[in-house]
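Researcher: Structure prediction, please.
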Amino acid sequence: MTLKNVFCGKGKERVPAIAFRMMSFMIELKYIFLPLDARIDTFGIKEGFTVIDYGCGPGGYLKRVSRLIGETGKLYAVDMFHMIREPVPFLQELHRLLKKDGVLIIDDGHQSRTETKMKMNQSKLWNIATESKDHLKCTPI
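Model: Predicted structure follows.
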């Protein structure tokens, strides 16, 4: 077993506590040097939106997104996609929750882009509308 698998919880349904604390610390350091505001602004989130931040880790997006959606919006934070053994039912539930004109943005995070695309295609519910260097933007089929 590689060090990455131990710290990312590969093959497990939850990340070990020490790994989560270390990941949280490293992510907070990353946010100091690479602020999220500009990236979040590219998502097109507006007041009143419902946002599901799955794989939220320590919640780096939550404060900014909460301000954007305002009092009339809803924000759900769920952790974590790469560890779900059966991703199709999970993607089906996200599809059910999303409005027809909504979008699903998938950050590369702890799994490869290839693995993410494979899971999306297996669900037969999502169209990968656009790809950026660090996320996929998907629309419901």
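Model: Residues 1-34 form one domain.
Researcher: Thanks, that helps.
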